[in-house]
Amino acid sequence: MITKGSVPGRRRLREAAFTMVFQGEFHKEQTPEELFAHIWEECNGKTPICDLYKEIAAGKGAGKEAAVAYMQSTFMGVFSHIDEIDEKIAEASVGWKKERLSKVILAILRLSIYEMLYTGDVPKSIAINEAVELTKRYEDVRLSGFVNGVLGKISRGTTEI
């Protein structure tokens, strides 16, 4: 369990996981394990998100362990189910091919779909809301409706995989 005050909250951890999923799109030659290790260990503070990684790494005790475990399991989970997740995106985004979606939107959708369908500990409404908020922060705010619509369609049409 992630304890309050010891590490960033779930929203910030989700944001960090999103950035890792996003980076994965640019490093397809690496395995997910190699990429996670590279991002986690090699981030040298050049960007604000690296500061978040450092904040997590500086945590103490069980809170830090839970935070790192969440990020790693989420990152690895997205990539272990990527084909199924991308199929869901294709089914729900009628008229949009995956190649037309920005890498930011693709990473946000992948993360949210993973949380909705595979984790069991994130309510679908929370996963959708967090995806919309990430979209507003990292992409054109007008695309938040698209993200909400795609995820809503998946949420309504899926109870289990």
Largest sheet: none
How helical, in percent, are the residues? over 70%
Gross morphology: globular
What is the number of beta strands?
A: 0
What's the alpha carbon Rg, rounded to whole Å? 15 Å
Summed over residues and divided by their number, the pLDDT gives a mean of: 84
Question: In what range is the share of β-strand residues?
Answer: under 5%
Encode the helix/strand succession as letters: HHHHHHHH
Low-confidence stretches: 1-5
Number of domains: 2
Number of helical regions: 8
Q: What is the end-to-end distance?
A: 26 Å
Please identify the structural class as seen in this structure. Answer: mainly alpha
Could you explain the architecture of this structure?
The chain is an all-alpha fold. It folds into two domains: 1-80, no CATH class; 82-161, N-utilizing Substance Protein B Homolog, Chain A (Orthogonal Bundle), CATH 1.10.940.10. The protein has eight helices and no strands. It has helices spanning 10-24, 32-42, 48-57, 61-80, 82-92, 103-119, 124-138, 144-157. 31% of the residues are buried.
